[in-house]
Amino acid sequence: MSDLPSDPALLRHTVMALSSRLAALSAECSTLSAERDAAIAQRDAAVQENDKLLMILSQFKRTIFGPRSETLDRGQLPLFTITAQAARAAANADVTGGRLPDGAEGRGKRPARRNRGKLPEHLPRIDVVIDVESHICPCCGERLHKIGETVKEAFDVVPMQYRVKRIVRPRYGCRGCRQGVMQAPAPAQAIDGGMVTEALLAHIAVMKYGYQLPLYRQEQMFAAQGITLDRQTLASWMGRAAWWLKPLHTLLRDTVMSYPRLFADETPLPVLDPGRGRAKVCQFWAIATDDRPWGGPAPPAVVYTFAEDRKAIRAKQLFGDYHGILQVDGYAAYKGLIKNGGHLVQLAFCFAHARRKISVAMWRRPAYTPSRRSNDRSIRAPAKG
User: Fold this and answer.
1) Taking residues 152-175, what's their average pLDDT?
2) Contacts (Cβ under 8 Å, ≥6 apart) of 167
């Protein structure tokens, strides 16, 4: 107070100068506060973008390195009443048949798979005797007698051998009347006028459809044995085999569709489309039933059906006359089976697809909850846009 001037005019001038300085400081403070708020909003937006990128990266890693089968994810254990031990047992079911080995609790490394013990008993045994050159004792000259033997079993294979099956039908004639000629009738063939037996047809079909060995590779295998078989010939043989098996497929389909509980799913199947220069995507339906988990009377069975496309009419063609429970995924075509007043099919869904939707919902949750306290300006809500 002693430093203030006593002159009123000078005092007024000092007060005005201090007021101007205070206003400038207040404006500067407002500018800094706005810059601070902008920095906080920018930081929150960066954090939100970082969380989004981390989620995308996690999904990307899971797509590339994650399990391909419908195994239970450890992050989803709280969704169902499943213990961690049961989840580990489910994850290692393919190693020990659903049972963890002794001492493997909590251990992530799978046990080594080794073939130990005896070879399968159902395989035929071929004895190869390796004997001594002389049965005379080198010490006393007496004849040796057998007191035992040492046997070692080894896994062996006889390479596949192609052969020509000659069907010989003798003709007989009568010397008396010289008119009667007799000959046994020719047996029926899988392909009229063909040069292939049923055994070779079954072998080619099993290798193609059972072990995924394409016809062009089988053509190369035949060529390695000095046998020239064009791929088109093999394909025509498979078409003829399919014609023979069509009644069996019809019987199997009718039998499966008579069961009260079925599982159905479809998968894309690329099919060659000559003239377009690329393959067209068709559908391969699998209709299965299995009552073994609850001791049902029906034996397990599965039938496959081909469809040109994935239209909703395909589901009605397959299950339009079915009466029972049908377990399917979320494909909209299945829902058309119970529309228009039809209630013959009861749809049942699986937990696997429910887990997928719940997982997506959980991944899309915000990484943090902004504070609502008015006096805490260190955390702000994410900036819009």
Assistant:
1) 91
2) 186, 187
